[in-house]
Design a protein that fits this description.
By secondary structure, the chain is an all-alpha fold. It contains six helices and no strands.
């Protein structure tokens, strides 16, 4: 039988169980790192379950809108470089230095490092979708709103932010994706 020893207090017992749960959770998360496609498929299935719940229940539109805004924010952080060239250029111009990005062939190559790595993007998106599914279980989260306004507003917000992000990519010549880039082989 698992019982708490008499010298262990209730908060200490809760802390021990929480610590054990946290370690087990982290172990499973660490084991999932190499399985990128399966992780994203699972997240896609969760998102489809959430969408089906919203569609069938005809409610919780504010939860859906909040999730959409959060996922858009994660996606933008995923597309943005960790070291923003526009900020670095502003800093160097104030100090009288040269631009940070290579502008000629003989300058040093700087790899694209994301502000939000893929794994953290997946982990935060999956947690958000799970929390949104959980929120749809409570009527208190079903705030009555006129959902077409939220959809139109989200589409406008998505269009404007993505246009700005794409213009930033074009201006500072970086591509956050690996497909389409030149791959060199040893010869």
């Amino acid at each position: 039988m698992d019982s708490t020893p008499p010298d262990q207090t209730f908060p200490a017992a809760v802390s021990a169980h929480t610590s054990r749960f946290t370690r087990a959770y982290q172990t499973y998360i660490d084991k999932s790192v190499p399985f990128t496609a399966y992780r994203w498929i699972g997240t896609g299935v969760l998102l489809l379950m959430f969408m089906a719940r919203i569609f069938l229940a005809q409610g919780w539109y504010i939860v859906c809108y909040t999730l959409g805004i959060y996922l858009l924010n994660l996606f933008l952080a995923f597309l943005t470089p960790k070291f923003d060239p526009s900020l670095e250029q502003d800093d160097e111009m104030e100090g009288g230095g040269m631009p940070a990005l290579p502008t000629k062939q003989d300058e040093e190559f700087r790899p694209f490092i994301r502000r939000l790595p893929e794994f953290k993007f997946w982990h935060n998106a999956t947690r958000a979708i799970t929390l949104a599914i959980f929120a749809t279980l409570f009527d208190a989260c079903d705030i009555p709103v006129f959902w077409p306004v939220l959809v139109i507003y989200w589409i406008i917000l998505f269009t404007l932010t993505m246009r700005r992000q794409i213009q930033h990519m074009i201006k500072y010549r970086y591509v956050p994706f690996t497909f389409g880039k030149t791959r060199y082989t040893r010869s």
